[in-house]
Amino acid sequence: MIVVLLLDQISKRWVVDNLVMGETFQPIPALVPFFQMTRSENTGAAFGLLPQAADLFLIIAVVVVVALILFYRQIPDHARFTRFGVGLVCGGALGNALNRLEYGAVVDFIHYQIPGVISNVSNLADHAIVIGVILIVIESWRADPDERAAQSRRVMKQDRSIGDD
């Protein structure tokens, strides 16, 4: 979580210090137009959805991180993909939350595109969140049915005990 958060914040700071809004930098000219760095900001969710709900996304990020930290203790030691995935999701969510607090928007700069098919500008935090969720899903598919049922019972028991406080 800490490594993701640090790398995300360092990379975004470099972008803010070195690129003006909308400016493009081509770190690897051979990859243009498929990959470049373009400074952009996003007040909404992924793909710019609901830009007017920036405060809501900040609250959601904090709630998700707190819930995942509480959930982390319930993850079996052998569930390495899930443990690593939760760290990636938390680091990414915190990175974007810090941007919302500092700039009122998330700093995006990783611009990849397939001309005529897709064009997207994102950041390291976004990628950490996506990879983290994928790892958690893969682990859940690999878990045997008895372990999934036991884990569900542990989570439900944890939820009930939180509500009793």
Fold and architecture overview:
This protein is an alpha+beta fold and 165 residues long. It has one domain (2-163). The protein is 59% helix and 15% strand. The protein has five helices and four strands. Strands 1-2-3-4 form a four-stranded antiparallel β-sheet. α1 (2-18) runs parallel beside α3, α2 packs antiparallel against α3 (80-103) and α3 packs antiparallel against α4 (124-142). The protein is globular and about 50 Å long. 27% of the residues are buried. The mean pLDDT is 88.
Which descriptors apply to this entry?
59% helix; 165 residues; alpha+beta; four-stranded antiparallel β-sheet
How many discrete domains? 1
* Shape verdict: globular
Poorly predicted runs are none
- Separate helix tally: 5
How many E strands?
A: 4
Terminal Cα span: 28 Å
The secondary-structure element order is HEEHHEEHH
Helix content, binned percent: 55-70%
Percent strand: 5-15%
Structural class: alpha+beta
Biggest beta sheet attributes: 4 strands, antiparallel
Strand order of the largest sheet: 1-2-3-4
Q: Write down the Rg.
A: 18 Å
- Residue-averaged pLDDT: 88
